[in-house]
Amino acid sequence: MQVVKLAGNTYVRGDCVAGCQALIQDETVDLIVTDPPYGIGGGALHKHYNRDEKFVLDGYIDVPADQYQDFSLAWIAQAARILKPGGQIYIVSGYTHLYEIMHALRQTPLVEVNHLVWKYPFGVYTRRKFITSHYHILLYARPPLEKSTFNLCSRFGLEERDADGRSLNYRDREDVWTINRRYQPGKIKNKNELPQELLVKILQYSSSEGDLVCDLFMGGFTTAKACIGLNRRFIGFELSQRAFEHQIVEISQLEPGKLLTKLRKPATDRLTNRGGAWSEKDKRKLLREYQGLIRAGLKQKEALAQLSGKYLRGEWSLKRVLKAGQQ
Predict the structure, then answer these.
(1) Which of 108, 283, 323, 324 has a 20 to 30 A CA-CA distance from 62?
(2) What are phi and psi for residue 123, nearest 5 degrees?
(3) Dist CA 120 CA 52 (whole Å)
(4) In whole angstroms, what is the distance from residue 109 CA to residue 254 CA?
(5) For residues 91 and 115, what is the distance between their CA atoms, to the nearest angstrom?
(6) Which residues pair with 137 in a beta bridge?
(7) How far is CA 140 from the centre of its chain?
(8) What string of DSSP letters covers 79-130?
(9) Which sign, positive or negative, has the C-alpha torsion 202, 207, 208, 211?
(10) Are 81 and 25 in contact (CB under 8 A)?
(11) DSSP readout, 214-251?
(12) Would the pTM count as exceeding 0.85?
């Protein structure tokens, strides 16, 4: 096992199960983001992705299909052990061994939060079946879920709308994500690297600056690079010596926090009472004022907009209170 420490982060060349046991104490990691081997014959991925691999690093280490269940049980048990209460794990997976991964997760105290679908254009070309153009992203957490980080407005404010009036926040949080796969023509890379946009989105929603993030299968070190750019602490493992030696050079040249300046700044939510409890007095007052506005000739939408600004609450909240008061 080779351990390299750079700028407070830890990079380990070696098996992640043995590495976790040796280096990470129970309940110390805030977030795990990882993309385990897919068990589909990684040495021949060019057959799956129909691409020229002369710029792809040799030494990709896959897992034989008949060993995948035991492999999944072992590393997922370690993931569950090292997560803090409320800590979360994102697992990127194809469909081939999705069953084994989900079975292993169900042997732990972790609970499912979301089953996301990452949709990308230009999928695996086929002639005799439908084209595969998505991956699964499993989001699980260690109870209690109330302690889990979810930065609701980290990317879009709740009031932000597109040109058609649709909520940008709602759309960004739907469970199907369309993000291009990472193409780097002419550049040395690891097999099947995750796009930076995907990692940044995950880190924005499920971590904060200073949190400890772990990647059990670093591959192209994309999680590590995103963590450095967003000022998250990091520890990760990679078994391939070729990949490790190449990527550790790139890691050493990155500027901490550089990605923070490139993040979109969400609009501040002016509805500061959103989600708060209603007093009976305010409920009665709202009903009287709404009825007065309607009698004065305002349309429902106009009345709700005016009351939303006064009570600093969303229109859905106003409608629920008004509906209950009119029954």
Answers:
(1) 108
(2) -75, -170
(3) 19
(4) 36
(5) 10
(6) 92, 116
(7) 11
(8) HHHHEEEEEEEEEEE-STTHHHHHHHHTTSS-EEEEEEEEEEEEEE--SSSP
(9) negative
(10) no
(11) EESS-TTTHHHHHHHHTT-EEEEEE--HHHHHHHHHHH
(12) no
> What is the enclosing helix (H) or strand (E) of 17?
helix 16-23
Residue 67 · residue 37 · CB < 8 Å: no
Q: Which amino acid is at 20?
A: C
Domain boundaries, the chain: 2-262, 280-326
78-119 per-position pLDDT tens digit: 999 999 999 999 999 998 899 999 999 999 999 999 999 999
At 274, list the tokens. 């959103």
CATH code at 2-262: 3.40.50.150
Residue 217 vs residues 19, 277, 281, 300, 304: alpha-carbon distances, Å: 11, 44, 56, 54, 51
